[in-house]
Amino acid sequence: MSGRLLSDLFRRCPGFDVVACNADRPSLVKSVLQCKPDVALISADLRDGQMSGLAALGEIREEVSGVRSILLFDRPNPHVVVEGLRAGARGVFCRSNFEFATLRKCVRRVHEGQLWVGNEELECVLTALSQPRALRVMNSDGSNLLSKREEDVMRLVAEGMGNREIAQALDLSEHTVKNYLFHIFDKLGISNRVELVLYAVSMPKIAAPVTSQKRDQVTGQDFSGRNSA
């Protein structure tokens, strides 16, 4: 019902064309793949269940290039906001104080290539970033994606430590810490520390890392020519 109402409102506005309106994740993803709209409005909760829209958002990001997505949600929530941005949303819009004129402006700004994050949503991001947590990252089959030492490094990055501090805490060389970071970047499909922190704040807790008594050794190429870690 909410989708149909929004569709009717946008159809009445000059300069907007509504190409599809879907209530479940499979239909939404299929429509975006077929129609390739300029902007996709995606509710965090679809007919499939809570947070199914977030999953659709990530799937669309993987499958379709050039589509700018806006995540809609009912109330500000640090987890939803951060996960939405991490999944590729170019705008986040809360419907708790809905004004269609504001949503229309949001769509136009995102279509122009800008980001749309309100003050309250930005507060959610800052709150999440100020509460780093220990991490365990899993594959879809439930197995660990990162090694124990990579989890340790990731956790300390999320706590705001630099490479030198991490090296001292884990009794590693700074070069080894940098190599760990680039292995983590590769496994998570990210490119820098900011994305790593945004990824980290939404992950479940694990035990704090145990400081090593021996210096770990990592073999492999020098990553100094890639993105800065």
Salient structural properties:
Arc Repressor Mutant, subunit A, alpha/beta
Look at the structure and name the CATH superfamily of the largest domain. Answer: Response regulator
Please give the share of residues in helix: 40-55%
* Order of helical and strand elements: HHEHEHEHEHHHHH
Spatial order of the strands in the main sheet? 1-2-3-4
Mean pLDDT: 79
Number of domains: 2
Approximate strand percentage:
5-15%
Oligomer, anyone?
A: single chain
Please state the structural category.
alpha/beta
Secondary structure tally, helices? 10
Assign the CATH architecture of the largest domain: 3-Layer(aba) Sandwich
Mind explaining what this structure looks like?
- The protein has 229 residues and is α/β, with parallel strands linked by helices.
- It folds into 2 domains: 2-129, Rossmann fold, CATH 3.40.50; 132-229, Winged helix-like DNA-binding domain superfamily/Winged helix DNA-binding domain (Arc Repressor Mutant, subunit A, Orthogonal Bundle).
- Helices cover 47% and strands 7% of the residues.
- It contains 10 helices and 4 strands.
- The protein has helices at 2-11, 25-35, 52-63, 78-86, 100-111, 119-129, 148-158, 163-170, 174-188, 193-200; strands at residues 39-43, 68-73, 91-94, 116-117.
- Helix 7 packs across helix 10 (193-200) and helix 8 (163-170) crosses helix 9.
- The protein starts with a helix and ends in a 29-residue tail after the last helix.
- Mean pLDDT is 79; it is low at 205-228.
